[in-house]
Amino acid sequence: MPLLTMHSRQISWTPLLLLGYLFYLLLGAMVFQLLEKQAETHFRDQFQLEKLKFLQNYTCLNRQALEQFVQVLMEAWEKGVNPEGNSTNPSNWDFSNSFFFAGTVVTTIGYGNLSPSTVAGQIFCVFYALFGVPLNLAFLNQLGKALNAHLLTLERWVQKPGRAQVVQTLAVVIFLITGTLLFLVLPPLVFSYVEGWSYGEGFYFTFITLSTIGFGDYVVGTNPNKHYIPVYRSLTAIWIVFGLAWLALVFNVGADLMERYLQLKWHKSDLSLAEGDTTKLEDEPEQPRIHIPS
Length: 294
Description:
Layout: E1 3-6, E2 9-12, H1 14-57, H2 63-78, H3 95-106, H4 119-158, H5 164-195, H6 199-210, H7 232-283
Antiparallel strand pairs: 1-2
């Protein structure tokens, strides 16, 4: 546990980090509530108004029948069946979609828009994730080491006396810029073109996916009105794996820098307190001593 020394006492800054973590969660909760609660109320009222209009236009239906139909739609959506379109919609469990789903399982993204509905599928999913998640972590770890090794090789190749810090900074900048272009900037353009999203929606999906948050509000290849190439979701799954490795390195670097900043801040505070105590001792006049002969 990280410790700092202050006035001859060891104090852990881990509780302070815990307080900061809780404060960050509380801050996020308040901001999300402020931004989303009013919009949720508006959409709920709009939905109730649309149901009333529907009953007025179709007088042969009553409210109970409409609620039963809405329940059928909800159950279909929970089972991964899109209520739009008809029975000719492509299957959610063809090989390409199944490959994409397997990727979301082992990477722990879990969009939530599709899940096994059979008991056998659910049991297999549990054991598949039990072995697949550690395998995915080991693979991402090795992939991250390989990326880091390439950075070190680049640094040793161009390193010259007196330029070590400049070369290291340049290598990190190249790594960040290249990864940002390949995994955060360019993919939203592709998703915007294929899915019909705005660039902001595509960027939102990209980051939420690569950070393994995976809300499931935006998922590629699920629009029944669009015709996708067979390997579209499979290629997306491969992009996700490499993007996860890159973003994990970025998060690790960010966490390491934050930890070093906290340690450096406490170290400077400790040094300033120690210097203040030393100055105080030097400024105090020496007390007269009484010599008692033996």
